[in-house]
Amino acid sequence: MAEQVLQLASGRRVGVFETGKPNGSAVFYMHGFPSSRLEVKLIEDQAAEAGVRLIALDRPGIGKSSPVHRFGIMQWPATVDEVADMMAIRRYSVLGFSAGAAFALACAAATPDQVVRCVLISPVAPATVLATANTGITRLAWQILQITPDALLCPLLSFSLRGIAHARPAQLADMLAHNAERLGVGERAALQDEAVRRAFAAAVAEGYIQGPRANQDQAIALAHPWGFDLDQIDLPVRIYHGAHDQIMPAEAARALAAGLRHGTLFMQPEGHISALVRCAAPALESLRAELR
Questions:
Q1: Cα dist. 233→30, 87, 144 in Å?
Q2: Beta bridge partners of 20
Q3: 3-class SS at 146?
């Protein structure tokens, strides 16, 4: 594995964590929210076994990447493509976990000549999809988010994330252990593994090393239109989702798959985080096979 900080032509820095097989098929990993490039450590072994060169990037203001105020989702593909050029990578696939799905799909929409295939695990769906696919309080919450002014969203997000933003990795690991029961059967099994808890907690803590602003901006971007339509993506998109996911309901994944031109959904008996840990192997293998 290798860590580095790359400087783009604009002068902006990008934190990079690379693992897996150095000369393997290139896959760019898009981390969740709130998290960082270190999240990829959860699936290092699976990447090595699949023969994949897995490259995780910090988004702006996260970890070791320079901040960019109100960085838009559709600004991300150019960053990934510039990093790929610096690494002499011509074609690559993208893997997005949770909120990282938005950024992976943006790459598939904006740079189809470079992106070969897209895989999503426990994906967040666009707010317009979530506002119709879910039921009850979840649907209402996403409908409210779409019409709430940003000036009000910022303090609300700051308040809701305050416990995470100032916690140390050990405290975050304890929070995960404490919430495992509430998160359901799939999550319970995965979070009993101390290594999984510690790795995920470290990734979240790294995501706040520059403060909470970047994560607030990301949440606002996710709640608004993403800047592209799902049906403009003309690439195969495989979706792995947990039937017991308590963070992003399974119905949202079904609606997301239905909205894509070439979306295929693999529903698994998992939760949100456990789907990443347990579905990474077949997901990465599918990407490697496509890039052979």
A1: 17, 25, 27
A2: 53
A3: helix
List the one residue out of 96, 94, 87, 84 whose CA is nearest residue 33. Answer: 96
Q: Are strands 237-242 and 263-268 parallel, antiparallel or unpaired?
A: parallel
Nearest of 4, 189, 25 to residue 95 by alpha carbon: 25
Contact 205, 82 (CB under 8 A): no
Type of residue at 228: F
| Gap between the Cα atoms of 279 and 292, Å rounded | 21
Rounded distance, CA 209 to CA 213, Å? 11
- The secondary structure of residue 28, as a DSSP letter, is E
Q: Residue 187's domain is classified under what CATH number? A: 3.40.50.1820
Residue labelled with tokens 């901040």: 67
Q: How far apart, in whole angstroms, are the C-alpha atoms of residue 167 and residue 172? A: 6
Whole-angstrom distance, CA of residue 258 vs CA of residue 246: 21
Q: For the chain, how many structural domains are there in total?
A: 1
Contact (CB, 8 A) for 190 and 43 = no
**Residue with more model confidence, 246 or 162:** 246
* Structural domain boundaries enclosing 43: 2-291
181 vs 183: CA distance, rounded Å? 5
Q: Scanning the structure block, which residue is given the tokens 């964590």?
A: 17
Quote the tokens at residue 3: 């860590």
pTM for this prediction: 0.89
Average pLDDT, the chain: 86
Which segments within 38-121 are labelled E, that is strand?
A: 52-57, 92-97, 115-121
- Strand runs labelled E in the chain: 2-7, 13-20, 25-30, 52-57, 92-97, 115-121, 237-242, 263-268
User: 263: pLDDT confidence band, cut at 50, 70 and 90?
Assistant: very high
pLDDT at res. 166: 61
Summarize pLDDT for 188-214 with one digit per residue, the tens: 888 888 899 899 999 999 999 998 889
